[in-house]
Design brief:
Elements lengths: L13 E3 L9 H9 L3 E5 L5 H12 L5 E6 L8 H10 L1 H5 L17 H10 L4 E5 L5 H9 L3 E6 L2 H10 L3 E5 L5 E2 L14 H12 L3 E4 L5 H9 L4 E4 L13 H8 L6 E4 L7 E4 L2 H6 L9 H16 L21 H8 L4
Parallel strand pairs: 1-2, 1-9, 2-3, 3-4, 4-5, 5-6, 6-8, 8-9
Antiparallel strand pairs: 7-11, 10-11
């Protein structure tokens, strides 16, 4: 077992990814730990109070776990571009009697300060960061509190920046991953690099322990990543249909629906690149959507919620990695067992 996981009571080098917006429940995190892995609570899009409640729920079960936070790294957008895209979406909003906001927060810090203070006052075993790299003093304070700090990176250059900031380990995310890319430069194209190649590059560039993620859905994917130099792997999409996942019913169904035959990288839903099942919304708006996060996230939020409530998969952000067909309806423990079967 890698020294990265030493002392946590982790038997298998498989981590459950933090999936913001609902799927990552305390139950999913606890089930992953009881299956021998380690799960992350998703702190993104939550208040500090809500996150604290989930932390307490997991701690009550006496299992190791981590917490993930979004780091403020806005993608600027002009009022004109925002307004143009809002008008483009009016036809979709009219289906649900919605009036999309004419203006939205062009930036927000996702309750950053409150959540950092929570994690300093109430340390957890692991904390990971995505979208940006925190200031060195934040990383140092968490490490002094006994927390292992991890940074999500998508290139060797990003890995070097994270290493210079003082993190303990790196989560290396390939573009095959579902949901938002962790890229530090979301306004630029994302290079298509296989996870094994990227893992080897990052390990060579920094020497830090690495967790490989992005498209891992089979036992072979797990062993390939470990052979490439990863200390552990992280899976997300593979867990979306599990009993403990709180992904919406339409989302779970779409992952197995033959009508959804591919995934695409798109910024149409949030203004930041993310991988999702190809649907009407991605087909129609991917080329029209400007870069602009979190402004576009706020713009489309009500529309996505209404579509989800109605089961309208044409308009839902169906986050999914390239291995989505391997996601199964079963307990988390069975998924972890299957992924670990060749270790």
């Amino acid at each position: 077992m890698s020294t990265l996981l030493t002392g946590l009571g982790v038997d298998r080098p498989i981590l459950a990814a933090p999936m913001a917006g609902g799927p990552s429940t305390p139950a999913l995190v606890v089930a992953t730990a009881r299956a021998g892995g380690l799960g992350f609570l998703a702190g993104g899009y939550k208040t500090a109070q809500a996150l604290a409640g989930q932390i307490h729920a997991v701690e009550a079960e006496g299992v190791p776990f981590g917490v993930n936070l979004f780091v403020r790294n806005p993608v600027p957008i002009s009022a004109e571009e925002y307004g143009r895209y809002a008008r483009e979406l009016r036809e979709e909003a009219d289906r649900y009697g919605l009036t999309l906001p004419e203006t939205a927060p062009l930036d927000d810090d996702d309750h950053w300060s409150e959540k950092i203070e929570l994690l300093k006052a109430h340390p957890v075993p692991w904390v990971s960061f995505t979208f940006g790299i925190p200031d060195r003093d934040v990383i140092t304070s968490l490490r002094r509190a006994g927390t292992t700090v991890l940074q999500c990176v998508t290139t060797a250059d990003e890995a070097r920046l994270a290493a210079e900031a003082g993190v303990d380990a790196l989560i290396v995310q390939a573009p095959a991953a579902g949901g938002h890319s962790a890229t530090l430069t979301p306004d630029r194209p994302i290079a298509s690099v296989p996870l094994t190649d990227l893992t080897a590059e990052v390990r060579a560039a920094t020497g830090l322990p690495t967790v490989a993620t992005g498209g891992i859905a089979t036992p072979n994917d797990v062993t390939d990543a470990l052979r490439a130099g990863a200390d552990a792997v992280m899976v997300g999409t593979a867990l979306l249909r599990t009993d403990e996942s709180a992904a919406s019913a339409p989302h779970k169904a779409a992952l197995a629906d033959p009508a959804f035959d591919s995934t695409v990288l798109t910024r149409a839903f949030t203004g930041r690149p993310a991988r999702a099942l190809r649907n009407h919304f991605t087909d129609r708006y991917s080329d029209r959507a400007p870069a602009g996060y979190p402004a576009l996230h706020h713009l489309t939020s009500a529309l996505r919620k209404a579509a989800t409530a109605a089961g309208d998969t044409r308009l839902i952000h169906l986050w999914a990695g390239t291995g989505y067909r391997e996601a199964r309806i079963e307990p988390v423990s069975q998924t972890i067992d299957r992924l670990s079967s060749r270790l």
